[in-house]
TrEMBL record:
Lineage: superkingdom: Bacteria
EC number(s) recorded for this UniProt protein: 1.13.11.93
InterPro entries given in the database record: HGLS (IPR009770)
Family: Belongs to the 2-oxoadipate dioxygenase/decarboxylase family.
Pfam family, one: HGLS
Keyword Transit peptide: no
Official protein name in the record: 2-oxoadipate dioxygenase/decarboxylase
Keyword entries, A-Z: Dioxygenase, Iron, Oxidoreductase
Cofactor names: Fe(2+)
Organism: Undibacterium arcticum
């Protein structure tokens, strides 16, 4: 069977339309495993891949530098291998109707087939990162890097400001969607009609769920945490997507030669197998509430586009070579600076 008319194709088309679905399929590598499907039923890996494609397409709409790079790859006959997407959360009790911290997303990721793949203390920025890899196709379906910010590590004024910003949060997941996630976790698949209903709600979780923040609150958060200030305007949107390339250093040289705003240094993991760099976050215009409730606008850092190279290593117990799907806390904290650079 061809992928045309596949479960994956139909899922993505249902959410963003035929033309946009075709375009993201031209830009992203789709693993060949999705060329075979079961009529009437959608597997957890198909929903996971569809969600990744939707979030990738959404980021390209918000990040012109990433869109330009990806379209150039396609124009040269290539496709991007989406390695992972990253998002930020806040572990804080006063979080409105939205569950605090990473649980707002593990309740989604685990039914989709993801499992914890690594824990990364990000102490310099008061956060904890966790990576989630897909059980069925770990090296082919993009991972999620979910970070939690810990307001208790900052001042009491900062904590009060976090409460003001986040206490208006709404939960995009309806009780029906949560029931479908339970069924997906139990059975590993859903009826096609249920998957069509669930997918747009999952996509909606990756956005800002709280009200427009006050400019005064944004400025206060920015004095102590560029990451929390970013969350105030962007919420749980994908902070970045990542192209897995053969040679990060070569890509960095090429993009720098084109005058693109690149990270100055390449991050290298302690084991030397993982190298990362990124574009500086594209600026975006966001609304804030002024001192008298009026709406004001300011240009702030948006999301960005990352590049990663992964080497293989020899796994002694099964005696096979594996792709290193890990992350590195030092790399992550260096990459996080991409949204601080434009502040």
């Amino acid at each position: 069977m061809s992928a045309q008319g596949s479960n994956l194709n139909n899922l993505v088309e249902h959410v963003i339309g035929v033309d946009a679905a075709a375009r993201v399929g031209q830009l992203m590598k789709v693993p060949p495993v999705f060329s075979i499907w079961e009529c009437g039923w959608v597997s957890r890996k198909e929903i996971a891949q569809a969600l990744n494609m939707l979030l990738f397409a959404d980021l390209l709409q918000r990040v012109p530098s990433g869109r330009q790079y990806t379209e150039e790859v396609a124009a040269q006959g290539g496709k991007v291998m989406h390695d992972h997407g990253a998002l930020r959360t806040v572990r804080w009790a006063d979080h409105g109707a939205l569950p605090p911290g990473e649980y707002a997303f593990t309740r989604i990721l685990e039914p989709l087939g993801y499992r914890l793949n690594g824990l990364f203390p990000l102490d310099r920025i008061g956060m904890t990162g966790r990576s989630y890899a897909h059980q069925d196709c770990p090296d082919q379906i993009a991972q999620f890097f979910v970070s939690e910010l810990h307001p208790e590590k900052f001042s009491t004024q900062f904590q009060a400001t976090v409460t003001r910003v986040l206490s208006t949060s709404q939960d995009p997941l309806t009780p029906q969607a949560q029931a479908m996630l339970h069924e997906l976790a139990r059975d590993g698949r859903l009826p096609f009609a249920a998957a069509l209903e669930l997918l747009p709600q999952l996509q909606a979780c990756f956005g800002r769920q709280h009200a427009i923040p006050a400019l005064q609150d944004y400025d206060m958060l920015l004095t102590e945490s560029a990451e929390m200030a970013w969350i105030a305007t962007e919420g749980n949107a994908f902070n970045h997507v990542t192209d897995r390339v053969d040679d990060v250093e070569r890509v960095a040289r090429q993009q720098s030669a084109l005058g693109r705003p690149m990270k100055k240094a390449i991050e290298v993991s302690k084991n030397g197998r993982i190298k990362q760099t990124a574009f500086v976050a594209d600026p975006v215009l966001r609304q804030f509430r002024g001192d008298h409730g009026e709406l004001v606008e300011r240009t702030v850092p948006g999301s960005f586009y990352e590049f990663i190279s992964r080497q293989q290593y020899f796994d002694a117990e099964p005696k096979i070579n594996r792709l290193d799907l890990g992350f590195d806390a030092g790399n992550a904290q260096g990459i996080f600076k991409m949204t601080a650079a434009a502040s």
